[in-house]
Amino acid sequence: MRVSKTDRRVQVILGMQWGDEGKGKIVDLLGESSDVVARFQGGANAGHTVRFEGRKYILHLLPTGILRPNIQCVIGNGVVIDPDSLMEEIRTLGDSGIETAGRLWISHRAHIILPQHKILDQISEDIRTGQKIGTTGRGIGPAYADKAGRLGIRMGDLLAPEGILAERVSQQVENRNNQMSSLYGRSGPGSREVLLLLERLREKVRDCITDTRIFLNRAIGDQKRILLEGAQGAMLDIDFGTYPFVTSSNTTVGGVFTGLGIAPREIGHVLGVLKAYTTRVGNGPFPTELTGGLGDSLRTKGAEFGSTTGRPRRCGWFDSVVARYAREINGVDSVALTKLDVLDEMKELRICTAYKCREEVLEDFPGNCDLLDAALPVYETLPGWQKPTGDIREFGKLPAEARKYIERIERLVGAPVEIVSVGSSREQNIFR
Ligand code: IMP
């Protein structure tokens, strides 16, 4: 096991758990030496938090690279775009002196989230029998459903000749409103109102809409340094996650190719981000969840509240079955391990190495969610270090128990940990 020596010019950063691994901080960190940062899936359901110069920025839709003025940013075709969120983020950044003009590029193939999608998101949760998904309510599922159903409105439609956009909006909105009112007795804003929203969006981003596939492939050809920023995490992937308790996009590496239009051979390095423990927001299986006082103390210490919805995150021990699975699906070359400092006060730590399911011991993550509900984690216990780590900048200076914890994770996951984050600020990192 060694840090891959592959060409890092085009690098992917992906979450390996249920999202909220701290990808925003890592992208921001590595962004310093990047020319381009691109997002390829998800929408404003994400919440990437970055702290610097005493300020906290939460980005939902814009790539994290937008915080560094020399970086060109791309929102790829695989992303679903909420007009209000996009306009609000551009405005808030502008108020902080961060300009997006001339360095934000949005795919003309990216689909737009309409107000109707958000209402439908709420309705599908309300009418769902059994356990709710616990979505972020941002209209993500219904927007991707319309994309797959070949009904969606895309960013490029904003540039269509006069009258065509109005016609598309009117068809889509009236259809949706009729469906919602006849089936559920609810309705969204009329087509006139939605058209006004899209016209405002057009005014704001007209110059950003382009064929980002061409932009990115040129940047690759020009030997630019490119970071491809994942949102959510492997366990929320529509295919490989804990279905149906997942988001509606491919959060794993395949999403890069379909969400940006670049080829697999262009990727030089896949950096997976793992939190030093596990969290999950929303419902669904979570084998290592801690429901008692330990879970509460992790939540408080790690400030584990959703950055998009403010919901308390469920917290639990590090799960190497999940991490190994995510390593394999994504071809993770190396790992950034975040929030190690949150564990500083723990007397002892547990790592899940397998699941016991109905007398069977599973080391591979099961594809069947029902099996997971019955899974009991098999734990290994390690001593805690009970010393602060937030000021440490060299691996060798970490307490011996912390090094052992990290080395054990490396062995179980099968990939080297090359960055350890020991606090929320830009400086609190250990590079190996
Ligand atoms: P949706 O993406 O809003 O449809 O939500 C589907 C599931 O994904 C829910 O369990 C959400 O809590 C979860 N989810 C979506 N985005 C994020 C994220 O950025 N971090 C953590 N969980 C997320």
Description:
This protein has helices spanning 23-31, 83-95, 115-127, 140-148, 164-184, 191-205, 212-221, 254-260, 293-301, 320-330, 369-373, 400-413; strands spanning 10-15, 36-39, 48-52, 55-59, 72-75, 80-81, 104-107, 111-112, 209-210, 226-229, 269-275, 278-280, 314-316, 318-319, 334-338, 348-357, 360-362, 376-383, 417-421, 429-431. A hairpin with a 2-residue loop joins strand 16 (348-357) and strand 17 (360-362). The protein folds into two domains: 10-102 and 211-431, Adenylosuccinate Synthetase, Chain A, domain 3 (Alpha-Beta Complex), CATH 3.90.170.10; 111-208, Adenylosuccinate Synthetase, subunit A, domain 2, CATH 1.10.300.10. The chain is α/β, with parallel strands linked by helices and 432 residues long. Helices cover 31% and strands 20% of the residues. It has twelve helices and 20 strands. The model has no long low-confidence stretch (mean pLDDT 95). Inosinic acid binds next to helix 4.
> What CATH architecture of the largest domain do you see?
Alpha-Beta Complex
Spans of 5+ residues with little confidence (pLDDT < 50)? Answer: none
Question: What name is given to the CATH topology of the largest domain?
Answer: Adenylosuccinate Synthetase, Chain A, domain 3
CATH superfamily of the largest domain: Adenylosuccinate Synthetase, subunit A, domain 3
How many separate helices? Answer: 12
Overall helicity? 25-40%
